[in-house]
Amino acid sequence: MKRIIPYITGLLFLATACNSEPQGWVDGGAAGIFPDYANVTVPSNIAPTNFIILDSASKYHTILRSADVQYDIKGAKVRIPLRKWRELTSHGDITVTIYEKNSSGWTRMKPFCMNVTEEVDPYVTYRVIPPSFESFQKLSIIQRNLTNFKEKTVYSNQMVAKGSTMQCINCHSFKNWHTDNMQFHIRQQLGGTIIYSNGKLSKVNLKTDSTISAGVYPSWHPTHNYIAYSTNRTYQELHSNHSNRVEVFDEYSDLILYDLEKNSVSIIENDSTELECFPYWSPDGKSLYYVSAHIDNPESFYKSGGVAASTQDIRYNLYSKPFNPDDKSWGDKQLIICADSMQKSITLPRVSPDGRWLMFTMGNQGVFHIWHKEADLYMLDLRNGGYRSVDEINSPDVESYHSWSSNGRWVIFSSRRDDGVFTRLFLTHMSEDGHFSKPFALPQKDPEFSRKYLYSFNIPEFTVEPVKVSARVIASFVKSNDAQAVSFEQK
Amino acid sequence: MSPREENKRLNILATARWILPVALFCILVFCSYPFLQKVEEKSFFQFDFLWFKGFLDKPSGFLAWCSLFFTQFLHLHWLGALIWVVLLTLAAELTRTVFSIPKSISALAYVPVAILVTYNMSMGYLVYYMNIPGWFFTPVLGYLFILLSVSVLRKIRRPLPYTVISIIYGLAGYYLTGFYALAGIITSGVDSALSDRFQSRRSIPILSAISVVIIAPILFTGMTTYNLSEGWTIGLPQQIIEIPASRLQLPIIAALLFPVIMTFSGSVKYGRRPLILYSVQVTALVLTVAIPSAFWFKDDNFKAELSMIHAVDNLEWNKAIKIFESISAKHEKDPSWQPTRVLVLLKDLALIKTGQEGERAFCFEDGSKPQKARWSVPMAFQIGRILHLHYGIPGLCNRWLIEDAVMFGWNNMTFRYMFMNSLLLGNVQAARNYLNVMEHTLFYRKWAKSQEYLCVDDNRSLLAGTAPYDMILPLMCYDDEICTDWEGCENFLMYHFNSIRPENATPLYDRVALFYALKSKQSTLFWTRFLLYLDSNNPDKIARAYQEATYLFSNTKDGMSMPELPLDNQVKNLYKSFGQNAQKYGKKSLEESRVLFPANQRHTYYYYYYYVNGLQLF
Question: A452 vs B48: CB contact, 8 Å cut-off?
Fold first, then answer.
């Protein structure tokens, strides 16, 4: 026994030495890390914020500390085990200290903090899509569990695709952050709008003889069984020599209301001098926000090439329209922000759950801002009508689709800030006064994921619960059911 | 003939089978290397766990990953060819061993392998469409897996363990190789049922095989997100655009039927009937040569296209011109031969890049020969990226790169061009990311490292001094516009360079615009562009094609007179002699006129203007 003791002591010494903080270091500047999680605010239930150290060094040693909990990681890839991460977040803010060793010894990089605060809705659903223009092969709607790295396919076009007959799937949407009521569209093969409502699946064709197209951008009414949609005739053209690359535009667009119980659609707005789009309900369901671009003299406008010939001059303003959900009656539209007068264009209005804030995207022109590098997020205070660019979360590249968490404290948005090509998702926390914390990338198991993954993420939507119907059930339903026609309700 | 002599003769015939792989290797390396290069360029393999994991999403992904691993070696086409030939030979020899085919008729084992060779080498233009990763190596690896399945399951001699192991083996195999595992388990089932091992329970291996075939696709469809209807053929190419699955699947299935047929051979007593053995061996040898020879895709234009594209991808402009010269020379005596538009456009591009377009643009045969293909490939998918990149239209280059990547898979060339295009669009981080991907590859790592220095902010002046950007940036002097080329790259280039001249037009832009004005045959446009060209380029000597055009347009009915321009006498004399011939022959088709006019008259702008008509532009 006596013989073994020195060995055990030695091994224990080695084990502790391996994890001990480097000695004899000098202070350095801020470490380069990707994704940038330095001084961000994260929800206490988020998955580990794994990152990679970009600085060149021969050895790396990272220490994560929260109160009396400490975790050491060696190597440039900092991957934190979920259990350890939970332990760290449960103790509050986390301080991260990175040591880098080079020929002159260890350097302690400037420590940074990850502030841990209130929880975020545990699920986010997004579409995974290649950054293509016309072609698509694999499109999926995926639900990601934000508390870990698990993903679940809500629906994939591969499940019904056969040869060249492909499906485009888009615009998934949930009612009040719950999954009892959800919908998405399928275009082309076996197309229709798939609606899952209170345990029942249906497939409807929202196109009628009196409307431009089937429903496009959806918004579930918060209290009644209605969904507001835009109807759009959409085209796209390419930039010959510009990093924006594509211009997607609507030649025509209107707004419709779909009544799930009556299986009927009615017109909300179909002014021939306006291109209406992106409806979104206020939390009480008594107002519908939307954007609209004005066209002078539609007859001559369309004769001279329509929107395709003047994409640079099409700008959308923000409107609201009062609504009585009980009798489906509408009031007169009200102009909220006249972006056109500032040579700007507004898209994607989204009201916070408490009804106070309205976040929107604003670019120089057009309706499809994911292809506009200048597009940024803005916030309108609905109490006083003041609005501002949310500079603390915007970047020089695109910011576009965004959605609020159910508690109104978190926003998830899409941005191309990483490389200008692939859309990635970022989360940010809003304080009570409407200011946001530094945004952070949706954590991934492999910190290099965003640099390698050749698909974009779009339409991130929070939910408080997982989707209840399986992808296989939806696929089987899609395959075996034709889209039901809807009736058209005259005003 | 004495038995000894018979044996000797049979042995010679048995040895003759070794000629097959050697001959195949030589043909691949010396005659079909452009095709092999294209297969490699259209594939991608990187050493990255995340990327590997992506393959495990659905059954047969592992086989695709392995196939891509081998495909990357086609970068050195002789090495890739060698690996493929070795695998094919292994497949044939294992077939012989597994099914106990006597040496005297050993060539029989090469018949399915010949079908696999034919499958790959008959692709031709379909190489642009093949969107199943690693399609080139998948059939032979799948075939080997089938032989492995038969060998492994033969070792189990008792019914119960056979049932359990074959089902587990089948399910695991299905996840790894998809269809090939189902084929393997069926072959094993038939093989075992026919063997003496399960004399009283012959139905067991058959039932095990059937259960695997039924269960595996259903089980894995439930776990992953692919279409159940493809579950039984997953791992085989599926329908691509309008190309039916049968075209892509039947040859493979035909090859895989061979082992099933051979399972019945256990009962065949080969005996010592030399004439029969001799006949079988000779027939098999003839088949292994005849089948690939009959279906091997042979088209000079296709081969030249692949070689020119490869040369242009590597910025070897003079080599590209030489390839065009060489195919023109080869068909000098064949009036029915025409180059495809891809050949013509690449030749024009190479001439522009080497500054020879004014002197030599019309010194080659022109034409628009359709592709020798049942399912023709849009030019945009062949060279859209090349034309738009090198003519300074990065927006459209990006479009075709992405469309190609999404429809037919990200590949080595896509990444390379994406990198260059991102730099041109000022998207340095994206360029860096593409390089990062390339750095994980075996054969492009060095290239990627060598390009890192370009990935810096404010790199415009750096690019301006670096090929190929030095010849592209001056062409990007125009204002951005919203546009589309549909799938007509050439028509778009015509429209682009024949549109209003940009305010900041560079001398290079004027050169290219003049060239396209000549191609358009519009005299007014030519004069405008010609004067601008003279002004911005101030050439010492006016190139031959411009002299010819000047002389031609000065002499047409509504032509402008340009007496102050010094024109070579040769230009004037050629015009006269061409005019005499033109009067003599009158209006003729391109094919007819090619025989009538001597080469020196054919290779002029005059000839292009009057006789090169009705081309199908893309």
Answer: yes
**Mutation for B interface: A152, A241, A398, A418, most B CBs within 10 A:** A241
Q: Does A365 touch chain B (CB under 8 A)?
A: no
Mean pLDDT of chain B: 91
For chain B, what are the domain ranges?
3-295, 489-611
Distance CA B559, CA B134 (A): 58
Contact between chains at B484 and A237 (C-beta distance less than 8 A): yes
Q: Which residues of chain B neighbour A239 with C-beta distances below 8 Å?
A: 395, 480-483
**CB spacing of A140 vs B225 below 8 angstroms:** yes
Strand pairing class (A77-78; A94-102): unpaired
Please tell me the predicted confidence (pLDDT) of residue B197.
Answer: 79
Provide CB contacts within 8 A for B243, sequence distance 6+: B126, B129, B375
Say what the pLDDT of residue A4 is. Answer: 60
Instruction: Encode pLDDT of A45-94 as tens digits.
Output: 999 999 999 999 999 999 999 999 999 999 999 999 999 999 999 999 99
Burial of A41-71, coded b for 16+ CB within 10 Å and e otherwise, reads bbbebbbbbbbbbebebeebbbbbbbeeeeb
Question: With 60 as the cut, is the pLDDT of residue A286 above it?
Answer: yes
Contact A369/A415 with Cβ under 8 angstroms? Answer: no
Q: Please state at what angle helix B300-313 crosses helix B341-353, rounded to 10 degrees.
A: 30
Structure tokens at A270: 């179909």
Q: Is the confidence at residue A457, as pLDDT, over 90?
A: yes
Q: Averaged over B167-195, what is the pLDDT?
A: 94
pLDDT score at B241: 78
Q: Is pLDDT of A17 > 50? A: no
Q: Of the ranges A282-286, B117-121, B375-379, which one carries the lowest mean pLDDT score?
A: B375-379
Residue pairs spanning A and B at CB distance below 8 A: 120
Handedness of CA A277, A282, A284, A286 (dihedral sign): negative
Task: Give the CA dihedral A154, A158, A160, A164, nearest 10 degrees.
Answer: 150
| β partners of residue A43 | A117
Nearest to A420 among B131, B405, B427 (CB): B427
CA-to-CA distance for A178 and A286, rounded, in angstroms?
Answer: 20
β-bridge partners, A253? A232
- Per residue in B406-431, pLDDT (tens digit) is 888 999 999 999 999 999 999 999 99
CA dihedral B76, B82, B84, B89 (to 10 degrees): 180
Compare A1 and B176 and report the one with higher pLDDT.
B176
Cβ <8 Å between A158 and B426: no
DSSP-derived secondary structure letter, B226: S
Question: Are the CB atoms for A387 and A367 separated by under 8 Å?
Answer: no
Amino acid at B197: R
ipTM of the complex: 0.88
- Which residue from B minimizes the CA distance to A422? B430
Q: What is the pLDDT of residue A14?
A: 47
Contact between A293 and A316 (Cβ < 8 Å): yes
Q: Which amino acid is at A340?
A: D
d(CA B470, CA B468) in angstroms, rounded, equals: 5
Give me the domains of chain A, ranges plus CATH numbers.
27-117 (2.60.40.10), 123-484 (2.120.10.30)
Q: Which of A480, A467, A440 is nearest to A94 (CA)?
A: A440
How far apart, in whole angstroms, are the C-alpha atoms of residue B458 and residue A246? 24
Q: Which helix (H) or strand (E) holds A389?
A: strand A387-389
* Omega cis (within 30) before A322: no
Among residues B397, B387, B334, which one has the least CA distance to residue B365? B334
Question: Any CB–CB contact under 8 A between B251 and chain A?
Answer: no
Which residue has tokens 């001990």? Answer: A20
Q: How far is A136 from chain B (nearest CA, A)?
A: 6
Peptide bond into B468 cis (omega under 30): yes
Determine the distance in angstroms separating the CA of B229 from the nearest CA of chain A, rounded to an integer: 8
